[in-house]
Amino acid sequence: MIAIEDVSKRYADGTVAVDRLSLQIPNHSITVLVGPSGCGKTTTLRMINRMIEPSSGTIRVDGQDVQRQPVNALRRSMGYVIQNAGLFQHRTILDNIATVPRLLGWSKQRARARAAELMERVGLDKDMARRYPYQLSGGQQQRVGVARALAADPPILLMDEPFSAVDPVVRRGLQEELLRIQGELGKAIVFVTHDMDEAITIGDRIAVLRKGGRLAQFAAPDELLSSPADEFVEEFLGGDRGIRGLSFLSTRDLELDRSRVFPIDADRQRIARATSARPADAQPVLVTGIDGKPLGWTDPAAWNGDAGTLTPYGQSFEVGRDSLRVALDRAVLSPTGHAVAVDGSGRVLGIAGQETIAAAIRAARQRHAATSPQGTEYPQDPPPVKATR
Ligand SMILES: Nc1ncnc2c1ncn2[C@@H]1O[C@H](COP(=O)(O)OP(=O)(O)OP(=O)(O)O)[C@@H](O)[C@H]1O
């Protein structure tokens, strides 16, 4: 949908911010521009809505050269979200969100009704409608920024480090919210960040830029992690790209042990019988409630049926939804070295030890090596839901 063709930007002082950049940014997807400070990310983004004019090259949206379009109409067809939200301080939250519909000539009533609808969509309480931006937290202001950008239902959303100024927990929530909204609306989103983790979490495709605004690599996150184009990209990805790559491996085929899972009302003799024949009988068993949900670990020999004596199981992972990275993380943090696998409603499906998970990782890589034309390390299994990377 957005075609950046051989675009350069040289500022008046001679700085070359972008150098012969070409990128095809598809519809219904999130394309992330990432790279070190000063590599031309913001300049690239702003050339799309003509806040900055390129020195050479062409940018087309749906085949139309943006240079030939009236700048106001062009900008209204693209939502724009920036760091710290950039809200109008003297306008209420509702009127902030209603800004573009009002500019488009909607009646006050219609624009406000649309704004109220969007507040709900981005997870803002109705009560906030009459407040002013200074009466909201940073994270809430960012939600208003996203709602304002979406108000006129533009097909394109340009986002420049929108979540950089909030703390990591709020940031994670905003990323998940963006993915949820994108799942419903399917915009063409161009998202600038300097944070590789953020890029991997939300990007369908990632363009890594190097200083001087040159493209180092343009690829899907799993491809980037498994086959960085050169040392610059590899260094930018960081030292733990192997672990990060596990985010793209599904837990769907992970072998689960069900023999060490018992409901709280199970006969204690039965538990002892089922576990004593095994060499690993010193290992604990997982006790579930009668609803099948996990309660905690116990040593089978010492189990007296009292839920109060169980060792907390920490966090579980959802089979099929969570990645092997999540499963491995749960196992590493588990007091028993085993991760608890649950289904979508939180009922236990089994447990998986670190060795089992490591074997699944090896198998997934071998499967991939056998089928991949490039022989890259990670399989192209349908990736798990992004929010769980
Ligand atoms: N108006 C300007 N005049 C001259 N040079 C500029 C101007 N705006 C940006 N630059 C320079 O162009 C280069 C690219 O800047 P840009 O803001 O696009 O980078 P960025 O990748 O978004 O950086 P950051 O991550 O730090 O926001 C930088 O070297 C910057 O100093």
Automatic annotation (TrEMBL):
<feature type="domain" description="ABC transporter">
    <location>
        <begin position="2"/>
        <end position="237"/>
    </location>
</feature>
<dbReference type="Pfam" id="PF00005">
    <property type="entry name" value="ABC_tran"/>
</dbReference>
<feature type="compositionally biased region" description="Pro residues">
    <location>
        <begin position="380"/>
        <end position="389"/>
    </location>
</feature>
<dbReference type="InterPro" id="IPR003593">
    <property type="entry name" value="AAA+_ATPase"/>
</dbReference>
<dbReference type="GO" id="GO:0005524">
    <property type="term" value="F:ATP binding"/>
</dbReference>
<dbReference type="InterPro" id="IPR027417">
    <property type="entry name" value="P-loop_NTPase"/>
</dbReference>
<dbReference type="GO" id="GO:0015418">
    <property type="term" value="F:ABC-type quaternary ammonium compound transporting activity"/>
</dbReference>
<dbReference type="InterPro" id="IPR017871">
    <property type="entry name" value="ABC_transporter-like_CS"/>
</dbReference>
<comment type="similarity">
    <text>Belongs to the ABC transporter superfamily.</text>
</comment>
<keyword id="KW-0547">Nucleotide-binding</keyword>
<keyword id="KW-0813">Transport</keyword>
<keyword id="KW-0067">ATP-binding</keyword>
<dbReference type="InterPro" id="IPR003439">
    <property type="entry name" value="ABC_transporter-like_ATP-bd"/>
</dbReference>
<dbReference type="GO" id="GO:0016887">
    <property type="term" value="F:ATP hydrolysis activity"/>
</dbReference>
<protein>
    <recommendedName>
        <fullName>ABC-type quaternary amine transporter</fullName>
        <ecNumber>7.6.2.9</ecNumber>
    </recommendedName>
</protein>
<feature type="region of interest" description="Disordered">
    <location>
        <begin position="364"/>
        <end position="389"/>
    </location>
</feature>
